[in-house]
Amino acid sequence: MADRIKIAVIPGDGIGPEIMEQALLVLNEAGLKFGFEAETEMLLAGGASIDAYGVPLTDETIEKCKASGAVLLGAVGGPKWDNVDPSLRPEKALLGLRSGLGLYANLRPAKLFDELAHASPVKDINDTDILFVRELTGGIYFGKSGEYMSEDILADGTPYGKVAFDTESYSEGEIRRILKIAFDAAGGRHRKITLVDKANVLTTSRLWRRIFLEMAEEHPAIETECLYVDNCSMQLISRPSDFDVIVTSNMFGDILSDEAGMITGSVGMLPSASLGAPGTPGMFEPIHGSAPDIAGTGKANPCAAILSVAMMLRYAFNYNDAACAIERAVAKAISEGYRTCDIYSGRPEEKIVNSSEITLAILKFMG
Ligand code: NAD
To answer: Is the CB of 274 under 6 A from ligand 1?
Structure first.
């Protein structure tokens, strides 16, 4: 009898439901081939939840996610909800899911498909295959913040007026657990890890660096380097293929992983995984948003969502063979010239296709 895996599915808004439909076809096919049955429960979050329940995320949805083996998410948000109360914006659903499920590690691969290299704004990027490990529930996005009025005056006589502040703090425990994930990941890849920080300025970064160097001594087989974030943003452009695993704080990871994503082509190709404590459900989603500009046109590239299914099978359910089969099939569809609009560049070997046509090719190449 086939194993049963339980998945909370949140299609979301805009192109979310369209790419999710394709991703679920691939999940189902992987189940047939690799002997598991996916039991999916469809849930609402983001704008769809605001429309149905008045809030972007309900407690019931969080509870259902917690009771699943993994959460598969499309994308949330869109212009329809741009003017709602800021505390009720669709994107609040993402923060609610991350904190509700304790998802402290964000894994974002930025892997180049060779056939798309010519479309990258950066040259000499062959073999680029970076895994970003970003801390997701600490740092400046979660620190104390506020506003107050000040009577102080700047040296040139300008009054301070209103002052706004955000604070960054990290505990040793928070740093150690994310570094552990990064060292483990590097061990299964090319055994190189880069810590990105701003240790020449920030106290939090110096704590990150001290713990990183301690852990580096415990992992002699892994090559380690430390880069300041400003330097790293340049090195990513000049030598992207030299990186293997990059580990960093919440805000630096947010910015650098988008930069690296752009180097490797379209956001439509890039999946992500957000993980918490062992044994708790992770969340798997494309890095792109709900693309309202192309919603309903059939143009959405489902590859990021399909590759998110692969990450889910690998990290949440340990079906590594199924994950590899999906990744190989996506690579084969690209090498055979199948292109949605976002990755089409008009070369003779390319054929422009819609969301379902590229999915059909991927299903075919799964064997
Ligand atoms: P976006 O990622 O939705 O779109 C940026 C550009 O990339 C658009 O031109 C879009 O057409 C294109 N694009 C994105 N995904 C694509 C795909 N799969 N195939 C082809 N083209 C694709 O970013 P945005 O326009 O800044 O945001 C739109 C909405 O999505 C906003 O409401 C934003 O808040 C939300 N958003 C949600 C998430 C999420 O759910 N994780 C992430 C980012 C943005």
So the answer is: no
